[in-house]
Amino acid sequence: MGLKAVLSKVFAAWVNKDLNKIRKNSVVLQQKTFQHLISSAQNTVFGKDHHFDTINSYEDFKKQVPIRDYEDLRPYIDRITHGDPDILWPGKPEYLAKTSGTTSGIKYIPISKESMPEHIKAARNALLSYIHETGKAGFVNGKMIFLQGSPVLSEKAGISVGRLSGIVANLVPGYLQKNRLPSYAVNCIEDWEQKVDAIVEETINADMRLISGIPPWCQMYFDRLASKTGGKKIKNIFPNFTLFVYGGVNFEPYRARIEESIGFKIDSIETYPASEGFIAFQDSQKEKGLLLLTNSGMFYEFIPAEEFFNENPPRLSLQDVELDKNYALILNTTAGLWGYSIGDTIKFASKAPYRIVVTGRIKHYISAFGEHVIGEEVEQALMSVANEEGIDVVEFTVAPQVNPAEGELPYHEWFIEFGKKPTDIKAFALKVDKVLQKKNIYYFDLIEGNILQPLIIQSLAKDAFIDYMRSQGKLGGQNKVPRLSNNREIADELEKYIVE
Q1: With 90 as the cut, is the pLDDT of residue 225 above it?
Q2: What was the pLDDT predicted at 103?
Q3: Which secondary-structure segment (H or E) carries 13?
Q4: What are phi and psi of 420, to 5 degrees?
Q5: Fold of domain 1-361
Q6: For residue 167, which of 125, 107, 119, 210 has the smallest C-alpha distance?
Q7: 3-state secondary structure 282-329
Q8: Once rounded to an integer, what is the mean pLDDT over residues 282-296?
Q9: Nearest to residue 392, comparing CAs of 256, 238, 231?
Q10: What gap in Å lies between CA 360 and CA 366, rounded to an integer?
Q11: What is the number of other CB atoms lying within 10 angstroms of the CB of residue 298?
Q12: What would the pLDDT profile of 33-66 be if each residue is shown by its tens digit?
């Protein structure tokens, strides 16, 4: 075992003691975080506008600070991007993370001098937790690849601007730099397909041990490697590859195909990073869920998902949450986000410690008929049947068809790219529909009441979703295909890829 591996085990044990404080004292840590946030921001523009000097409790805070999305916060963000200091948080942000919004165009999420180190620490601690629990540290002696956005940063009002993954790429600790691929030059390639090809050339003969990225784009990398080597499995290209790190989407719909490409069931670590903050990571290979980071400069609020769009939905702090209940996640951060709806929904898998499961997006659901079907339900329905029948699902999305052919009932239309197709797609669709009915009582009632007909699956051509994302200028990086839409925008574009 190399020196790095030996030292990493010592470091992992030390970090685990620190994480135990989070596991045992999350509610207290959240209370301290809340107090720190309010006292630190009292003299900001936002703090003065919302009378932070009079806030003495969470109840006071809820009365004075409404829930906001990006558009609601935009007037403050605009002042930051024009160079004004002390707007949402003292001083100016260190960075502005540039993201794409569905309704807001380009969004600029502030990252402060205080919040940035928490991103780096959480990513590091995810790996160290794995080392501490499993004793497997050999990957630190070989090469690690992080499929991410370009590290080239621009500037706006004296603030560095870039994609979150690109910002983080500039801050990788020195002790990991020699192990890290791709090279800076390759990482700077903007065109995703050219970049993946360059990464293949640069890594194909390397001692690759850890691979990290969003699953569909990692799959694209694996496919290019296989094509380059005459169809070899990844285990034969990288015999020391032992750990897959991912985030951004649920891994389960991709797991079977990725493990088929690799050639064995790989150890994996799920992470939950966002431009707004690094929220959670998988700290155990044995326990379900991701450890909620309650001591990283973020105070969390939770709104029951079914009440989120009500005029005055209830807002809960950590101590009042329930297990297995779907919540919209709200953030208050040391980067100056206040009552900020990140757009994600989560459930608690455990409260001792607080571990969460990401269940979907609060706006990515189907409720064209009052069914409110969510991402977690469609993923579980599809994958349970697919796994049972040995069907390979590459990618999929679902939309309502509210204007069917004359004489037909409306239905949910599923667009699926299969690796291995069902022999009878209609029978397969009926099985998936039965599972979905069991998971969602409202959907069941609509089927039983002949308001909806059972779901219909459209089989798409190979690489349909890659071609679609390319057509939208969203190939690679942190971009993801929404699982659910409440309209036909994506569905109408995908119709051209339907195969009989």
Answers
A1: yes
A2: 47
A3: helix 3-40
A4: -120, 120
A5: Rossmann fold (3.40.50)
A6: 119
A7: CCCCCCCCEEECCCCCEEEEEEEHHHCCCCCCCCECHHHCCECCCEEE
A8: 97
A9: 256
A10: 12
A11: 24
A12: 999 999 999 999 999 999 999 999 999 999 999 9
Q: Identify the three-state secondary structure at position 143.
A: strand
Residues 421, 476: Cα–Cα separation, whole Å: 25
Mean residue pLDDT of the chain comes to 92
Q: Tell me the C-alpha distance between 439 and 426, whole Å.
A: 20
**Which pLDDT score is estimated for 62?**
97
- Each residue's pLDDT tens digit, 407-465: 898 999 999 999 989 999 999 999 999 999 998 888 998 898 888 999 999 999 999 99
* Contacts (Cβ under 8 Å, ≥6 apart) of 373: 365, 366, 367, 398, 412, 436, 440, 442, 443, 484
Q: Which two tokens stand for residue 310?
A: 């009500």
- In sequence order, the β-bridge partners of residue 401 are 411
Collapsing DSSP to helix, strand or coil, 330 comes out as: strand
Q: How many other C-beta atoms are found inside a 10 Å radius of the C-beta of residue 315?
A: 20
Q: Domain locations in the chain?
A: 1-361, 365-497
Look at strands 365-366 and 354-361 and give their pairing.
unpaired
Q: How far apart are CA 276 and CA 470, in angstroms?
A: 26
> Which token pair is 275?
């431009």
Query: What letter would DSSP give residue 94?
Result: S
pLDDT, one tens digit per residue, over 236-287 is 999 999 999 998 777 887 888 899 999 999 999 999 999 999 999 999 999 9
* Exposure class string for 405-438: b at 16+ Cβ within 10 A, else e: eeeeebbbbbbbbbeeebeebeebbebbbebbbe
φ/ψ region of 213 (left if φ > 0, alpha if ψ in -120 to 50, else beta) reads: left
Which residues share a beta bridge with 381? none
Tokens 């990073």 correspond to what residue?
Answer: 273
Quote the CA–CA distance of 282 and 214 in Å, as a whole number. Answer: 15
3-state helix, strand, coil in the chain (%, to 5): 40, 25, 35
What gap in Å lies between CA 240 and CA 257, rounded to an integer?
Answer: 20
What is the residue type of 49?
A: D
Cα distance between residue 118 and residue 141, in whole Å: 25
Whether the pTM exceeds 0.85: the reply is: no
Tokens of 485: 């839409």
The 3-state secondary structure of 105-143 reads EEEEEEECCCCHHHHHHHHHHHHHHHHHHHCCCHHHHCE
User: Which token pair is 287?
Assistant: 């326990």
Burial class (CB in 10 A: 0-12, 13-18, 19+), 194: exposed
The answer to whether 433 and 454 have CB atoms below 8 angstroms apart is: yes
Integer angstrom CA distances of residue 284 from 100, 127, 385 = 32, 10, 27
Class of domain 365-497: alpha beta
CB atoms within 10 A of CB 481: 18
